[in-house]
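Treating backbone geometry as a discrete language has practical consequences that deserve illustration. In the encoding step, the backbone of a single protein was reduced to a row of integers, each denoting a local shape. The amino acid sequence and the backbone structure tokens for this protein are reproduced below.
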Amino acid sequence: MKRVLIIGIGAGDPAHLTFQAAAAIASADVFFLLDKGAEKDGLVRLRRELIAAHAREPYRVVEARDPERDRTSGAYVEAVADWRARRAEVYARLIADEVPEDGVGAFLVWGDPALYDSTIAIVEDVLARGGEPFDYEVIPGISSVSALAARHRVSLTRVARPLHITTGRRLPADVEAADDIVVMLDAGCAFADLPQAADADVYWGAYVGTEDEILLAGPVREVAGEIRRRRAEARAAHGWVMDTYLLRKPAR
């Protein structure tokens, strides 16, 4: 039976690759890279470098165009569902056409596949469609959240307090859920406009683990404007931003 590996490769530093992930790369026959366009060439370049460093000959690299998600629709959940369905079609074709019988195909996933990544769900969708059967395995990676905390030299948790992980879209509704909140996918820096976050500290990072890394931290009142400015400059320079932050409210 064919096998598929979903390999977490870390937040951007090649040294984030675990021994388990390196061994998984060495076991694969074919690697699938989804092209997100010229502005995100760096994401593909890192994957190619890791493959070249750890894969064993003979192997193949197959690129496919990543479907675009509709970002104009106000129906966010429906737009994501449609995008995942179209991505599943691409995955199904790649696995069926490119993985040899009894062979191993691999997707290299930025960060950790179990945290704000769709690859596991999409592979499950492919299996549910009832095509050619295959088995799959998930290899964890160092997430951007873990890398962010390490770079800021803070713990994500405090004694007897929960950690809440959410998105910028959800933060206004979730800000009361905990005193320590990790926020991902926040293009609008939602924390800067929330009265409930005015007295909090923020630990922010963009491109964590890469040569373009930006780190800022401090009271929201003092650093929110600087974070917004640096984020906008980074997006203008690179065409995309991959950032996250820890919002830490005062102890109560």
Notes: DSSP finds seven helices and ten strands in the chain.
